[in-house]
Batch of 2 targets.
Target 1
Amino acid sequence: MNKDYPIINADVLILGGGSAGVMAAIRAKELNPNQKVVVFEKGDMKYSGCIARGMDALNIVAIPEISTPELYVESNSIACEGIMDEPVNYRMAERSWEMMKKLEDWGVFFPKDENDQYDILQVHPKGKFCVTMKEPELKTILAKKAVDLGVKIINRTMAVRLLKDGDRISGAIGMNVRSGEIIVCKAKTVILSSGGTARFGLPDNGHLYGVYDYPGNTGDGYCLAYRAGAELSGFEYTLVYYIVKDINAPLLYITLTRGAKLFNAFNERKDQAHPSIRSMFKEHVMEDSGPMRINMNHLPEEKVKEIEELLFTTERPACERFYEGRGIDFRTGEIELWPTEVFLCGGHGLTGVRVNENAETAVPGLYAAGDTSLVARGHLSGAFVFGEISAESASEFAAKNGDVSLDEEQINAFISERDSRLAQNTNEIAIEEFEYKVRRRISDYIKPPKNEYKLDRALWWMDRFREELSTMVRVQDVHDLFKLFEVENIIQCATMSALASKERKESRWTPWHYRSDYPETNEQEFKKHIVLTQGERLEDVKISYAPIIRMDKEA
Ligand SMILES: Cc1cc2nc3c(=O)[nH]c(=O)nc-3n(C[C@H](O)[C@H](O)[C@H](O)COP(=O)(O)OP(=O)(O)OC[C@H]3O[C@@H](n4cnc5c(N)ncnc54)[C@H](O)[C@@H]3O)c2cc1C
């Protein structure tokens, strides 16, 4: 082949070097140091993804003698209101303790008290699984490990298309987000670990990137999987978090579990009844009793310092500047909470590529892990454990199956598309303005509460936006170009979310899928997954159902 792009080879290609991706890369090299492991990462793996630096807890660890994987499955099933496949969740919990010990061996700090006990919090309906972690260098530790093991990391590279050899996956096309150059990776297996759709609805602060989840995640993994023939589910689970107003940064569990008080707008105490993000959002929106506020002025200095240390180092260091700017001192002031933008995510929610307990998708050679995959509410534990599982399955598949061939036509098709997008340089609308409008419509029509009228309006707008992406959006440089590909994925996710939401003619996970025209839960008809696959064209979304998978495999 005579072409102007490089082709590299991989046994395992990982798309997205966040929590799941970096763990998959490490595991693949641990298993076989001689296999070629490549990561395409849109940002820079050292600080990219949800972790960015560190995190205050590993949310699901079944610590022996304290809790069990069985209890976790029971507990999470309650939280998922029954829409949860048991085997994947069992597998995650079963390996969570081993995972935590491994992290500890690598130097990740899990504090213990004077009796040598971990700090374990209850955040699930049943059982204590949430273990405090204090590790501001979590991501850099993992990234360094991957580099030391010889993983080839290609930063600033957005995976734009998967490649197929017949039914089987054969690699992916990456595009450098700064130069627009194409790189092709011919790969025996591919792991999708590019997070959820963080840039979905528009946050109330109006900033495109001022979102709760990592803003580089624009549903690319979902769309790549969908285009390649994999199954998606849970797109009607439209999450809205309830956290610090304007910065959309977390602090709830960090403060409440350390004795902070919570008040609603009527000065009623709310912290005693173990409020969840879901119940707080419900009260704020549906009972109009918000905004709620966190108050810590009764806490001893050492507790306030502990909270500050966690928030200002481990979670998001930018929080310190935010509170300083607002003139808020935790010793005297209050922290106002507010609903975030609506977003889609497998780790906090139920949206994702359908995988089995081996992280396999419906496409041979294609695996998914972390927020891209559907391991319901797996959080960071799910990303790490399924990062490992996907690497184990992919490595085995790569070893057992022969080489793949590249289909030049698939690559040329993308290059033509890129070039025609670059030719849109005289169009009128800046991509940022367009993204703002798309996401405002998502907030208007897909953010819960929902109804048929709103969802139809969402679909009408998304069809129109799909067309305007070509006829109106201006692409002046490579920056605009890759933003356009991101916005195309956001539009596709919105279409899929509106369709799944229309299909689930009931209310479940209220308020996250609250249908004002179907306010009741319908166990009879809707205790099942709504599955999406691609039809003839990108916008032809096929809808089917799948039963809930139990441990004994009975539906
Ligand atoms: C603010 C916040 C706090 C949290 N706190 C906790 C907690 O305390 N405990 C807990 O257990 N869980 C927590 N979670 C959840 C947990 O962090 C996530 O579930 C987990 O990190 C998801 O990992 P991931 O690899 O799927 O996604 P990410 O870590 O976000 O990684 C996705 C990566 O893919 C890259 N990418 C995206 N698109 C492409 C593309 N097209 N090509 C190449 N690369 C791409 C991104 O740049 C990113 O690096 C928190 C999440 C958030 C957002």
Target 2
Amino acid sequence: MPRYSKFMIALHWATAVLVLAAWFTSEGGRHVRENPPLLHFSLGLAVLVLMIPRLLARMAGGAPRIEDTQGPWLNLAAKIGHAVLYVFLIGLPLTGWYAASRLGVPISFFGISLPALAAPVQGPPGLLAELHETGGTLILWLAGLHTLIALWHQFVLRDGTLRRMTPV
Ligand code: HEM
Ligand code: HEM
């Protein structure tokens, strides 16, 4: 069974931990303007930063082919599912950055100040900010489904899929 490169495996698990941590540190509503969750911003931006080496490693051949043991339609479904996760992993931090900009709060990445992506507003931060809040929870459901599928492969189909994403 071919595996993901060690580098891609490290980035996959680091990202999973960061997404979970970003979710646990997230806050919504009026509270955010008064007391912005800076740890949430840093953890979420770390997801975005890790996407750069991850996509480069992927393009450089760090991801093995999806094994053709489950038929072309399920393979396509797996590819689409992974692509959707990638869209969330890029879209969520960007919409969060935008939401923080519209709320007019300082944005920093572990102490490094970052510029705002949009001008601040007095009222609600807008549609992209709402999408961020909904998407922020949706990604957990998607990741949960993804986990269940991985466990299904491992313990029911017993086709070794999980080992593709584990270092040993
Ligand atoms: C994978 C990364 C991220 C996840 C999973 C995530 C998740 C969430 C969730 C679930 C909420 C809603 C919380 C609630 O309603 O109680 C939220 C709100 C928020 N997040 Fe994130 N977030 C991420 C990245 C970021 C980043 C990078 C920033 C800023 C640089 C950010 C800024 C915000 C702001 C400002 C809000 C409040 C929006 C509002 O009140 O309208 N997020 N996030
Ligand atoms: C927030 C949590 C997670 C996210 C965002 C996530 C995201 C992803 C993405 C985008 C891929 C495709 C990688 C590529 O082909 O470039 C992937 C692959 C994989 N993930 Fe996750 N993952 C998460 C958690 C988990 C967990 C908890 C498990 C296991 C219990 C898991 C098991 C796997 C496996 C086995 C693969 C390889 C699938 C294959 O190509 O055969 N993931 N994950």
